[in-house]
Write a structure and sequence with these properties.
alpha/beta; Nucleotidyltransferase, domain 5; 14 helices; single chain
Amino acid sequence: MKNNTLENKKKQELDRKNIIKEVGRKFNLIFPYLNEKSRRIWCATEANSFGWGGETIVYEATNISPKTIRKGLSELKNENKKPEVDRIREKGGGRKKIKEQNPDILKKLEALVEPLTRGDPESPLLWTSKSSQKLCEELNKEGYEISQRSVWSLLTGLGYSLQSNKKTKEGANHPDRDAQFEYINKSVKEFQEINQPVISIDAKKKENIGNFKNNGREYSPKGKPIEVNGHDFPDEKLGKACPYGVYDITKNNGWVSVGISKDTAEFAVESIRNWWREMGRTIYPNADKILITADCGGSNGYRTRLWKVELQKLSNELSLEIHVRHFPPGTSKWNKIEHKMFSFISKNWRGQPLIDRATIVNLIGNTKTKNGLLIKAILDERIYKTGIVVSDEEFNNINIEKEFFHGEWNYKIIPL
């Protein structure tokens, strides 16, 4: 007899869970089409259909408060009252939005997501592997009273969505990839907290100079497109442009040196030097160190001897410690400059032939965004040599200190 009673209880509990699950499924389907009043009326109707205990079932399924459901039930009973069409509630009524109650909650939520953000960083759609439930738990631990559904709404408003895995041609992942991402993120925050400059650097793709087709479209008189060369062979006289960028992560501004030579370590460090002279030292008059985030390869690669030699020269010249954090192999597009500055430059000059050097400099310098991005650009006509060999003696004279975690990626160069 006891066994039968226990089995019946288990069956009832299972049935109840299935009912809650089904109500939740229906609510999630109809939720985007309901306003505040219609939501509580829908919930009240569902609660009515279950009779006693219906309010609890609907609450567990939808997370709509019992007080709101009871208000809907009251409205359903008031048959003589004509529904209001134009207004759902009295002006100024209802709870304030979570963003109004806690103005800093968006920054806190982004801080939780940012170190673990995945996907294509140049895509306008960001996504996170953390669930809204886990993020909700983290926010509640920090003292915010917020539901999982509110977290979901905030994430949607910030441009995030929860997605499944998708293979990409990113290349082999280093086992410490994510740990390095977090180490970089931690370093950036530490520098920002004490108002020290943090810059992201990289060379943009080389561009043919001349009347060549440039991908993208812009408005022109109908039937009168800009005519360009029928081939893409580089012009020997005009050559190519090599833009090297410096992006100030904190201030959302940048610098681009448009080179006409090779992308070398000398050119990379000269670009940083130009940024400091023209922008950095004015913005950070009390700086005693700089943090640089960079790819692990190319002219600013962690294995490039000349890169570190040139950084030592710059450190001596500016009397600043230069801290460097390299992104792991295969993750160059995670560097902030790629999707915070270079992507907007590409959008600004899309569809326009880069007919000469002045055009390129002007198009880069006039790139703007809604978030206030400011870019300055110059033409660097210096010819940089390739194949410069750094001797062991010269390399050993670099005053470098490696960090405890992946010292080959994380290090600082101190003035001599």
